[in-house]
Input
Amino acid sequence: MKYLSEYRDARIAKALAHRIRATASRRWVLMEVCGGQTHTIVRQGIDELLGDAVEMIHGPGCPVCVTPLEQIDRAVALASRPDVTFTSFGDMLRVPGSDCDLQQVRARGGTVRVVYSPLDAVELAQRNPDRQVVFFAVGFETTAPANAMAVWRAHQLGVRNFSMLVSHVTVPPAMIALLEAPDNRVQGFLAAGHVCTVMGWDEYEPIAERYHVPIVVTGFEPVDILEGVLLAVTQLEAGEARVENQYVRSVRREGNTAARELVGRVFRLVDRKWRGIGEIPSSGLAIREEYADFDAELRFGVQDIHANESPDCRAGDVLRGQLKPIDCPMFGNVCTPMHPLGAPMVSTEGACAAYFTAGRLRSPVAGGVQ
Amino acid sequence: MTAISVSGAGAVCPTPTIESERVLLGHGSGGKLSAALLRDHILPWFTSPALRELGDAAVVPISGAELALSTDAFVVSPLEFPGGDIGVLAVHGTLNDLAMVGADPRYITVGFVIEEGLPLATLDRIVASMARSAERAGVAIVAGDTKVVERGKADGLFITTTGIGTFDGTFRAAPTGARDGDVVLVSGPVGAHGMTIMSVREGLGFETELISDTAALHPLVRQLRQAVADDVHVMRDPTRGGVASALNEIAAASRVGIELDEQAIPVDPPVFAACEVLGLDPLYVANEGIFLAIVPASVVDSALAALRAHPLGTRSRKIGRVTGANAGTVWVRTAIGGTRVVDMLPGDQLPRIC
Output
């Protein structure tokens, strides 16, 4: 498949891994921001190739994982209403709320449908004028343009029975929060290629400069990630801290200006809670007042649902890169994809689920049956 | 940016596990939830020794001979799709289950649960295609039943089929037969049926050339058995839950490890592309016209030659091997030389957000 198979080329990947190991004079600590990158790293065994040259810690870039508990509870409340058809991307359905998840709401009689695009939810609303169709808008800057487009389109078409439960978050404030934490270990970042495809990278330049960390905008295939790691390690070895773009086939410095403009028109910046990190100022997106008719929280009065999250699970430490999933005492025994204690065990992009499903027996396998 | 707080205390995530008191859609996925449904709610009550191996079909003694017996229920939306319809699936599915234990399918019975309002023309097309499939496969449909339920109480049409097959000789395949050193073969590219259904299902409008692989496999199985003098340890058609779930079941039943070579697993480009778009792994996608065969290493070449000589098996491949290590586990050696475990999924494979 063009633009895909060449970035999974084993020969190039191994050569890059060799150069990384040859370049690193010590063990560097890098964080890949995006859950899609975590997925590739664990799925393909990239961390095995890096050996002692680089420790990858997995950042908070899984949209399922950072969606706060109270937003799940609000989703459950909306989906339980008899007049609502609740629509969502598939992997939100198994995230446990305080009482139950969306799959269970469906089993109890709620109408919950998986869609592949928010525009499908708008169409569903048009076809079912007697139903209230709510779309669960989660994700980073990557999914924000399509979600903004759905609101804008519903507004243009006058689709009164469509609304959106918004839980959008943005990447740069989270990176700053991680860097300002007293126990921060991150020395360089692989920034999320798809987020930057939308947003460009100018907002990362002050971060690289102020905190003196290299930030490499990186793609999602094995060769992308290894090249991103090599660029970051090369900067670290030279004592540099710049923003570099590995993902040149997709990302321009200014990003996608039309998409940015649309996001800015529909959404505004708000303070937002992140599961595992806490509230980060100006790190979320919410619907602007001009489009408030499409805000499901206001339409159905669920904004007062609040939830306190349990301190038992250490997802927060995992999301902040302080704890490897496999070092968590709950991992694999109390907490599994069948019975997730926390969201990182639910999504395939979540660090815990990635380790559980793909990396669980890595050591004995590698040692046992070469 | 001074007010940012990153609190180490109160690491946050939701309270523990919710055990469901109701059946979830995931209980029908072919993954761990399905296995739990069987283990906790069905098998405690149904205790026949013939059920113990949980093979694709039961092998039962009747009047001094052994017969293979299998039953299957079919629910698919849409009822008609590129490459087939629910009727063809219902015939092939049961024939294939019989073929996987080494039986020759002979007779089928059929039950129709029809929703009020189903166009008779649709029913006619589906029944006609069932008749054609059965005739082509050399089996007779010999009994049946019809029930009609109120509109809204079924999704157009549900079909169940039960099949009976006979054995020639003593060969029986069971999921417990895999041995250290065996080789895993697949008779064709994976994922075609499941991705076809997803591509035509309401709301997923991408234009592709996907066609379901539905096929009756017993002629291909017969060709394989003849070529290797019945030296076949396990056969399995990887339907719901895909190749990954089928191999996990075999690894558990045979108490072996199974290592797959990622690059050897055949996936057609449209299936690969559709999986990439939706963030799905073709190893977990349903198939209806391929099977997995686990054979001793000594017969691999003749087995592959026999499979490839049949029109349904031209793209047969060796995709992995059986080991004594890591019993009960299936893993993949990745293209770049890493490894990853291919576990059974809890429920349905969920498309990713981005």
Chain A touches chain B through 99 residues (CB under 8 Å). Residues 222-237 of chain A form the longest helix (16 residues).
